[in-house]
Input
Amino acid sequence: MPITIHELHRWDVTPTEAVALQRELAAQVITDQPLPLDAITLVGGVDVSVKDNVSRAAVVVLRYPELDVIEAVQASIPTPFPYIPGLLSFREGAVILDAMRRLQARPDVFMFDGQGIAHPRRIGIASHVGLFIDVPTVGCAKSRLSGHAGPLPPEKGAWVPLQDRGEIIGVELRTRDNVKPVYVSVGNRATLDTARELVLRCTTRYRLPEPTRAAHNSAGIPLAAEDDDGDGGQLPLF
Output
């Protein structure tokens, strides 16, 4: 069954309009609906690259819990928005939705290479697109955009809360022993505990969980050594 996309707003807006839209939409994000982890059968992965003023999205669908890819689609459009930190969903959202329209399978949840509510206005790409598709979404970013966390133990599965202005907005999560963490947050229609657990269940021998790693590969986006090192070698903790 195809993804139903709700056209909540135009993407060709000014930065001021974009901030106002984020503030309006952030109030609609659902963060207290647990993911049905044991009932999930399909997980989607989403990633975007922007080069030479062209935005390219890759969306993949993996069987769960086997984590083998059963579908991969891509889309590209002229980049519709300038690079402004905190407003990247306006560069990426439209092309992601274009790719999602091409899917034949319908994932139970999508995992994004990017932020959910771990964002200054609590609406990163996973939350923003999650509202458009009304399917549960999780953000799993390679770097921190907002908030701070305490010391993180070196073992796989270790995590600490990511906090901003007295609010827990995500977790810093170790997906392999002695490698850099990822930053997990609710996108939409999930809870932080189940989002974190899904990321761990989707992680095999690499730093990145398989859905976003497969989307990277489908889009032809180069992976950093620490993201694609599957030999068990230890890497610096920084």
